[in-house]
Amino acid sequence: MIYLDNCSTTKPREPVVEKMTEALRFNFGNPSSLHRMGMDAEKAMKNSRSIIASYLGVKNEEIYFTSGGTEGNNIAIQGALKARETRGNHIITSMIEHPAVMNTIREYEKKGFRVSWIPNDKNGRIDMQKLEEELCDETILVSLIHVNNEIGTIQDIQSIGELLSKRSSRPHFHLDGVQSFGKVQISLIASGIDSFAFSGHKIHGPKGVGGLYISKKARVYPMVFGGNQEMGMRSGTENIPGIAGFGEAVRILSEQGQQESQKARALKESMTRMITDQIEDVLVNSPAGELSSPYILNLSFGWTRGEVLLHYLEEEDIFVSTTSACSSKGTDKSHVLKSIGLDDNYIEGTLRICFSYEITEEDVVRTVKALKSSVEDVRSIMRR
Length: 384
Prior knowledge:
Strand content: 5-15%
Order of helices and strands: EHHEHEHEHEHEEEHEEHEHHEH
Low-confidence stretches: none
Radius of gyration: 21 Å
Distance between the termini: 33 Å
Oligomer: single chain
CATH superfamily of the largest domain: Type I PLP-dependent aspartate aminotransferase-like (Major domain)
CATH topology of the largest domain: Aspartate Aminotransferase, domain 2
CATH class of the largest domain: Alpha Beta
């Protein structure tokens, strides 16, 4: 099997599974309980919090555990808007956000908030001049995706943070970091990030657990109330097995992440060369070099259908995707691909290939061979 759908989810590493199993079997106490079992569970949670905070270069008390990226984005966006609602009602975001952010902000637009949807260039980079023009005293939130989940574009967060810092009425700066956490380097403090959402299952950790960084300098109101777990930000009994596995995944990343990223970059560049050399009428939608994630390669094959190619490859035990797993079951064409100027012919023939540390050069060669055969077969049918 060659699994190349790692942007949708990743296979948990064996040490992660072991850590979770240990928690399920022996460390199953409620971390809010006062007895030893509760204290042991709390200790495991604190250890994971410390690992993640250290990895991000922030304080332990600035990390909150969530159920994943969607919840983290929602807490940050809705909580920041609630905290600043008396200061204005203007939100700035981009036209290539993940549905977790885009649909949340659309709900506030329906409620009467004014939203500026910043356009982007053909590489998926947002228009900095337009962003600066839209900023005003009423702007209370700027929410952007760090690494685009479909084409892998990395936004220039440092420059955006510097721009926002010059405003006397500085808005809350939220970053959707689900596809960047553990894969692309960032300094949250140096970039002026107020909140940053990330998830465990994108980095070979478990599903159902994520993290949210909220700067101590930022104001974010809780949106769910209960027993005041997670320092009052996210009430509800914590997922200790998931949190333990999440911490282990990040611990491994801190040791191996840079090397794995370099390997992924080399494989991505190798596959890109092979495909463009061997297959006609193909567009590479992911920006070249350091402008995009080393883990994401988005390609459009003219006169094909992405979903058909996906199933052809599946027959060869090769797994890819056509678009974001969070929107792939819908009927609408990708808003991201539309925003970079692709016409319907190429949008319909798009595949997203996402690498991991487990992929080899032999896997790349086999995938390209199978893909070439599949494209030729589909085109021969469609052009009859």
